Structures are given as C-alpha cells and as structure tokens.
C-alpha cells in the first residue's frame, strides 16, 4: 500500500463521516421542526 493509497483511504473515510454528520444534522432539524 503506497502513501497515496493511504491518504486516499483516509480522505474517503473523512468524506463518509462528513456526509453522515450532515445527514444526522438534517434529521435532527426535521425532528425539531415537526415538534414545534
């Protein structure tokens, strides 16, 4: 495994975590809107 592969792998994981966080935030926002 070369350095480039390693960094691409870490970057892909970071991107996945970011999208999960965005989805979680949107989900929480919709929950708050439906409550009020």
TrEMBL record:
Domain of life of the organism encoding this protein: Bacteria
Entry protein name: Uncharacterized protein
């Amino acid at each position: 495994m070369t350095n480039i592969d390693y960094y691409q792998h870490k970057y892909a994981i970071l991107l996945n975590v970011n999208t999960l966080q965005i989805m979680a935030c949107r989900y929480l926002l919709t929950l708050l809107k439906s409550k009020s």
